[in-house]
Amino acid sequence: MIKQRKLKIHPYVLIILTFLGVILLGTICFMFPWSVKSGERLNFIDSLFMATSSVCVTGLTVINPAAKLSVFGKIVMAILMEIGGLSFITIAVCFFAIIGGKIGIGNRYLLKEALNQNSLAGIVHLVKRIILISMIIQCIGVILNYFALMSYYNYDFVKTLGASIFHSIASFNNAGFDVFGDQSLILFKDNILLNISTMFLILCGGLGFIVIEELVTKRNIKKLSIHSRIVLIMTSVLTILGMFLFKFSMYDEITWLQALFTSVTCRTAGFTTIPLEQLPPGAYITAIVLMFIGVSPCSTGGGVKTTTIFVIFLTLVYYARGKKPKIFHRRISDGSIFKAFALFGSTVMLNILGTLIIGLSQPELGLEAILFEVVSGFSTTGLSMGITASFNVLSKVVMCFLMFFGRLGPLTIISVVNHNWMTESKEKIQYVEERIIVG
User: Fold this and answer.
1) C-alpha separations of 175 from 73, 312, 388 in Å
2) What is the C-alpha to C-alpha distance for residues 243 and 286, in angstroms, rounded to an integer?
3) Torsion, CA 105, CA 108, CA 112, CA 115, rounded to 10
4) CA 85 to CA 268: how far, in whole Å?
5) Cα separation of 346 and 202, whole Å?
């Protein structure tokens, strides 16, 4: 009798396939005639773009969701955002755990990779807590949004509640979609409660599930892991620094509230209370940098991540001093340093490549607008200088790839070729070290 070998599927392959499957399903749903108010079908490319942007929680759109999509279409978009933000794998495993289904070692390892964890211990329990905390935060957002939007909808309970739920999901998952029109939140630039609610949800989603879970359970900053401390430090520094840079770049044009909101939302959220078509150089560069950095690992957003930039910056500082980088009395591992530089380098190359292809395809759009759009798409931010609707088929396909790569992360795609995913790689042959002239 021939003994059949059990096929081991790479966890990153499964993660990629689940995202692709949800995007395909979303594309089909958007192509239904009842997804659009007029009853006309969206074509395949536009449906694919909308589904990709929703699942990858980007917020870029080739149509006006508020005016074009029906209630069904908006519900589909909200579900796709929730799945994309929390990840389909996390939701599915949590569901099976609740109904008593068995979660084997393979699924646990898959969760470990999806959540970027170092150990399998307590992974299922962690997923349950993540789902619960995420739902509670979004419910708080719904309540705050409801009171902030009551007057806008003339105290219509159903419309206000629907908009509040949609906006809470879009904000927490850093998606950037809205149902208020084609000007994002510019109409609500003076609505303090909506601004605070939106920023609260964006920051919670951007901190990362692990950080939120630690803040809720440990309740003491001194007991937080080094990862959580770094995330909180970087988030605070980037938010405050971004606020001052935006205010000083557009001093007479925006308020301090708008400057703070823009600083928060540029880190992969996609909402805006200021027009972006004619940003001054200082504000433009600040927005590009914040979008490129993005939020934190294991969060609902994209970008190269705050911890990546922190590791790179610390490495450069300590390299200049001729020492190994360390933080909080702990030395940063060589693997973390290598991973940070690999992620940074691959992200830069993909953004340059995307800008080049779209620039060659549609040079009339201008370099500044194209670069802004590419960085926004790859970092899953969703901010735009108004050129998304002008994209041709090639540009839309390129943006879909960028959004997909940005949500999963370049290293996730690259790691598919790693055949030693169950064990730490060990070279059988040791080669003589060679020093290459660099710099």
Assistant:
1) 16, 27, 16
2) 10
3) 170
4) 12
5) 26
- What CA–CA distance (Å, rounded) separates 80 from 62? 17
How many other C-beta atoms can be found within 10 angstroms of the C-beta atom of residue 263?
23
Closest CA to 403 of 23, 10, 14: 23
Q: How far apart are CA 432 and CA 105, in angstroms?
A: 38
Distance CA 58, CA 209 (A): 18
The type of residue at 311 is V
CB 112 within 8 A of CB 123: yes
pTM of the complete model: 0.87
pLDDT band at residue 6 under the 50/70/90 scheme: very low
CA proximity to 50, closest of 38, 34, 68:
68
Task: Write a three-state SS string for the chain.
Answer: CCCCCCCCCCHHHHHHHHHHHHHHHHHHHHHCHHHECCCCCCCHHHHHHHHHHHHCCCCCCCCCHHHHECHHHHHHHHHHHHHHHHCHHHHHHHHHHHCCCCCCHHHHHHHHHHCCCCCCCCHHHHHHHHHHHHHHHHHHHHHHHHHHHCCCCCCCHHHHHHHHHHHHHHHHCCCCCCCCCCCCCHHHCCCHHHHHHHHHHHHHHHHCHHHHHHHHHHCCHHHCCHHHHHHHHHHHHHHHHHHHHHHHHCCCCCCHHHHHHHHHHCCCCCCCCCCCCCCCHHHHHHHHHHHHHCCCCCCCCCCCCHHHHHHHHHHHHHHHCCCCCEECCEECCHHHHHHHHHHHHHHHHHHHHHHHHHHHHCHHHCHHHHHHHHHHHHCCCCCCCCCHHHCCHHHHHHHHHHHHHHHHCHHHHHHHHCCCCCCCCCCCCCCCCCCCCCC
Q: Above 80 in pLDDT, residue 118? A: no
Quick one: how far is CA 27 from the chain centroid? 20
Residue type, 185: L
Task: Please compute the mean of the pLDDT values over residues 23-48 and round it to a whole number.
Answer: 88
pLDDT tens, 354-380?
999 999 999 999 899 999 999 999 998
CA dihedral 387, 378, 201, 257 (to 10 degrees): -50
Q: Give residue-wise pLDDT tens across range 65-117.
A: 888 888 898 999 999 998 888 876 676 666 666 656 666 666 666 666 666 66
Inter-residue contact 270 to 176 (CB < 8 Å):
yes
